Amino acid sequence: MQWFAFMWAAVATLLLLGVIGVPLARIIGLRGFAAIAIAPAFAVTVVGLAAVVAPWIGLRWSVLPVLLVAIVLGGALFAVRYATRRWEPARAPRRPFDAWLLLAVVVAAALLTYRVTVIVGSPENISQTFDNIFHLNGIRFVLDTGNASSLWLGHMTNPDGGLAFYPAGWHALVALVVQISGVAIPVAVNGVTVVVSAVLWPLGVLLLARTLFGRSHVLAVSTGVLAASLPVFPILLMDYGVLYPYQLGLALLPAALAATLKALGLVGGRRTAPGQLWWTVAVLGCLPGLALAHPGAIVAWLALTAPMAVAFAVRRLRSAKSTLMRWVVVVSFAVYLAIGAVLLDTLRPPLEARGWPPQMSMLDAVWDVLTISAWYHTPALLAAVAVAAGVVWAIIARSAPGLIALGMYVVVAILYLAVAALPLPALRDALTGGWYNNLPRVAALLPFVLVPLGAYGAACTWSWLGRRRRVNKLSRALPRGLKGAVGIAATALAVLGLQVSSLSPVWVAEQWTGSVFIMGPDSPLLSSDEAELLSRLDEHVPAGVAVAGSPWTGASLAYALADRPVLMPHTLMEISAELRAVNEGLSSATPDGATCRAIDDLGVGFVLDFPGPEVHPGEHVFPGLQNLADSGAVRLVDQEGDARLYAVTGCGF
Fold first, then answer.
1. Which residues in the chain show pLDDT less than 50?
2. How is the chain split into domains, by residue range?
3. Which phi and psi (to 5°) does residue 265 adopt?
4. Phi, psi of 314 (to 5 degrees)
5. Who contacts 110 (Cβ-Cβ below 8 Å, separation ≥6)?
6. Does residue 382 contact residue 458 with C-beta atoms inside 8 Å?
7. With contact defined as beta carbons under 8 Å apart, do 650 and 593 qualify?
8. Residues with Cβ < 8 Å from 621, sequence gap 6 or more?
C-alpha cells in the first residue's frame, strides 16, 4: 500500500508540473521536446511566485493560488504573443517522432528510478541527516500556517523574523503534493525526489545536449545513459545534507542553460529577433524557479553562462561595423561582469556558514576531475574516456557550441579544484563562497558539463567509425530493422559498462546513500523505536498541545511525522527567554515558578525523551530535558524501547 502511495505522489508531482508548465511553454512558442523539458522550470517558478503572492491576496497555500498565478502569467504572455504574431517567422515544419530520444528518456528514467527507490528502501523512510529536520518540519509548517512564502518559512526557526528569506520553492512544491495526493510527508518527499532525479534531470540535460550539439540519435542515447551513471548528481545530494532544495534547483539548471544559449543566438540555424526574444522570456521564466528552489542554482547559472557571455561578446565584436559599436560591446560586457560580481556577493551565504576547508591535495583534485571520481573515490572510467573524446572532438571542430561546452567544463573544473584544494582562502571564497565553500555542492555541478561533452564524444566517435570504409559497407548491407537492433544492443552494452561496479561509482553511491535512509535501532536521527513511538503520539497528545524535546535526537520530528507542535523544530533555533526556561528547568518545574509560566505560555503538555545518538556526533545538553525518569514534574505516558513520552504534571494544569 505504501508503494502505491509513493507512486501516486510521484504521479501527482508530474501532473502538477506538467499542467502548470507545459501550457506556458506552448504559449511562448515552444513545441515538442523543448516544451516538455522546460515546463518543470516554468512550473517551479509559478509555484514559488504563487507562494510569495498568496499571503498578500489573503489566500492559504493550495493549488488555487498556483492556478491563479499561472492563468495571469499565461494570459499576459498570450496577449503579447497574439499582438506580435505578425513579426514572427513562419513556423518550422513539425519534425518526425524521434524514437531514439524517447529511448534515451526511458533508459535514464528507469535507471534513476531504480536507484532512488533502492536507496530509499521503503516509501516512508526518511533521510537520517541533519538538514532533513528543517526540511520535514518546514513542510508541516507550510501546511499548518497555510503560508509557503520564501519570506515566511524562516519564521519557523526565527519567530521574530531574524531569518527574512529562506528559499521555500521545494517546501511549497512538496506541500502541494501532500495536499493533492493525501500521502504522508515522508512519502511525498520521496515521490518528489524520484521525479526530480529521474525525470526533471534527464529531460533538462537532454535538452542542453541537443541544444549544444544537435539531434543525433547517438547523442541522445549517450546523454540519457550518462545522466544516469554519474551519481554526484543527483544521488550525492540525497547522500549529503540532505540537500533536497538544491537538488531541485540544479535539476532545473540545464533547461535554463539551454534557453540562455538560444536567447543569445549562439546555437541553431537561422536566428530571428522575435525567436530570440521569446527564448529570453523562457530564461526569465526559469530563473525565479532556480532562485526560489535554492540560490546556489542561480550562482551555478551565473558561472556556467560565463562562457556563453564571452562567446556572445566575441561574436558581436567581430560583427561590429564601427568603433562605436565595438565600444558598446566592451562597455556592455563590463557592465555584465559588474552585475555578475554584485550578484555573486549578494547570493553568498553568511561568512560563518562558509567555513568548509579544502579537503585534498591539488593533484588529487585534478585526478577527481579527469577520472570522474569525485566524492565516491571510484573512477567512472568509460564516462571519463567519453568526456576526453568530447574534449578532443570539440577542439578539432572548433565550433561555437563545442567551444562553449569546453568553456563550461573549464569553469566547473576550476571551481572544483578551488573548493577541493586551493590554499588561498580569499580567492577560494571569491570563487566558491556561493556554494558555502563546500565540496559536495560544487562536485554536484560536474555532470552538467561532463554529460553533454561525454555524449558529444560518443556521438562523434560513432560517426567517425561509421565513415570507415569497411564499417560503412557493412552498415549499408544491414536491413533497417537490424540497424535498430544493433543500436539497442549498443545502448544495453553502454548501460552495463557505465553501471558495472568495477567501472563506475554508481554502486558505491547506492550503498553510501542507502545507509542514510535505513531506519534501524541505531539510526542517527530517528531510530525504529522512536519512529514507532511517534506513530502513536496522537493517542496521547491532543491536537495543538506542544511537545518539548531535543531536536538533536529526532524528538522535533513529532511535528512533521505526528502533526504535533514542538518547541524546537530545528537545531538552529532562535531561543527565546521562555524557551530557554523550559529547556533548562522543565524537569524541576514547580507550580507558580518561572518555568511553569513559560510552559503555560508555550502550551507545552508533553516531553519526548529520546536517548540518542545525536544526528551529528556531539552532545547538546538541555538540563530541563535530562533525567526525566527521576523527575517529579512529569509522568510516563508511553514507551517504546528506550524512547519515552512524558506528560508534564508538575505545574498543576
1. 471
2. 2-89+98-304+348-512, 528-648
3. 70, 30
4. -65, -45
5. 198
6. no
7. no
8. none
